[in-house]
Amino acid sequence: MKNIRLNSRISYLMLLLSAVFLGGCEDYLEQLPQDSLSEAVYFETPEQFTSAANLFYTRLGFDYGDESSDLSGNISGDPLYGQGNSITPTSDDIWEDNYSYLRPPNQLIEKAADYPGEFSEIAESVATAYFFRAWHHFLLLKRFGGVPLATEAFNLDSEESISKFYGPRNSRYEVVGQILKDLDQAIGDLPSQNDLADDKQGKLTLEAAKSFKARVLLYEATWEKYVGAATDGDGTSEGAGSNKPADYPSIAEMFNGAKQAAKEVMDSGAYELWDQRDAIGEEHLFYLFNLEDGGSNPAGLSKADNKEFIFQTVYDFTLRKINQNLTHAKPVSPSRKLMDMYLCTDGLPVQHSDVFEGYDDMASEFENRDYRLKSFVNEPLKQYWGWGSNTNGGGAQYGVAFEDSGINYDYRYVPQLTSPGGARNVGYQGRKFTTEYRLRETKEESYNYPQIRLAEVMLIYAEATCEINGGTISDGDLDISINKIRERSGVAPLTNALIAPFPDLNMLGEIRRERAIELNGENFRFDDLKRWNVAIETLNKNVCLTYIEGTEYETALNPKDPGNPIYVAGAFPYGLTQSEQSVSTYSGIATTKPGALILDPSGNRNWTLKNYVDPIPTDQIELNPALVQNPGW
């Protein structure tokens, strides 16, 4: 029965996509513009409310991120966000898109008040609107801090509506308060995944809303604990001010709320961590993020076999490709810091583990390591399939040896250390969010993107628990959360006894390490560094890559380009590190030793407190003079 439900879940989403993108299923949708709900919609039947709510899902995108962070070996872009060199823009897509996306949920909520039938007939659609209203407000909050709340369907023909919208900014606390109220409304009327009818699989669930609430509560509790009002401004000359609603929760209440909501999702049994070690092997986590159909992985699994994604953006090869050039770009490539953050199989970091093999040989640092490292980073001189019809030898031919592929290509991966190459995929090459599908060319990838997944919920539970207990957490709480993630990653469990002999290790630091490793590339890193108030010190350090001095790389020749070296020293203007360097505010992260290739030196990086919230775009201030700019911009 569960397999039937899972397949139905994907089937529903395909029907949803068909309705919205092809316009073939609902006469109602055929009359709607693609980008907004028309005022001609009367919202008179449950079906009309359902169709309107379905449109909200199409606002979700492929939101990978973290490039140019301390964990990233890719620093492309101009200006570089991770360098702290952003400028005040004229316009901003995050601002414009999310305010545009807020109007349809508000319209549905308003129309529900006039619905002539029983509210129960439209309750789920209304709950979906409340969820998406919270979702888009949270995206604005993370970017700008306090913003004007949009809880009405803006009407250009109404002076009253214009005056309400074009007013001053609400404080971040007022925005968070509204988000939490909206999520409670959604939670009250969304069905559990366990009770979801087969024809509704893939829609929002009670567990998705609770998971999102846990995310919001943890984010804001840590922001208030570590950052406080430092970025608020006075609300008059700069910033959004610090006004708090009378019923605003305390920091402790938010931590406890995050823990409780996460625990309820974990205990629901509605979702399961992906663990296909037996079917695929130690690289099984690679396939969690590029599942399409049986042609996308050696075990013949499909999206229906993924029970970890709680809320996701749905893509389809026929109806909606990702169209972001992901595999070609390989956006999630690691820095030296991240490479050393991956644990060894004994559960200890590289500087303390007896099974770490060091850096002497090109592949030695991959030995006895976390499966996430093996899944998401190419190992030197190991063979990997390309993708499409002929890129890097073409896509995977599962069950066929590389030498029997019938293609005259050397599939071995050789690190790129001869040119800065646009500061992308130098030294190490990432694999997360890439495909080896034989039929997928550039921009044709069509796997789903996880907006919320169970592993994040477990990390929220562990972090909130540790914060509540003043930096401590029991082995029992670790076993029901982080240790499940470590188990599927081939890493020994985290226990109090394991780290006790090492003064530089502590539980909060290890939980944050797990979060960084597990969610790398999923657009959390900058927000995490800011809410922990470590962004300035962390992001202003050197970003380094491969160890060169004293390793095989110094003299190795490229086996795919005979007679030429793998590493060309003169190609890299910043050279190698000359001394041991701290890379983190947490002492448990291994320092970078002399001899590492410098990708982006600390002198290029200029993060300050003002970067914790981005500037309001100038065109919005011109439209609404009541808006005041964030501090420092």
What is the helix tally? 22
SSE sequence, one letter per element? HHHHHHHHHHHEHHHEHHHHHHHEEH
Assign the CATH architecture of the domain at 2-273 and 614-623: Alpha Horseshoe
**Spans of at least 5 consecutive residues with low confidence:** 1-12, 18-40
Task: Classify the helix fraction into a percent range.
Answer: 25-40%
Q: Please compute the radius of gyration using only Cα atoms.
A: 25 Å
Topology-level CATH name of the domain at 2-273 and 614-623: Serine Threonine Protein Phosphatase 5, Tetratricopeptide repeat
How far the N terminus sits from the C terminus, by CA atoms, comes to: 56 Å
How many strands in all? 4
Tell me, what's the shape? globular
Strand order of the largest sheet: 1-2
Averaging pLDDT over every residue, what do you get? 92
Strand content: under 5%
Q: For the record, what CATH class of the domain at 2-273 and 614-623 applies?
A: Mainly Alpha
Q: Which structural class do you get from the secondary structure elements? A: mainly alpha
Largest sheet: 2 strands, antiparallel
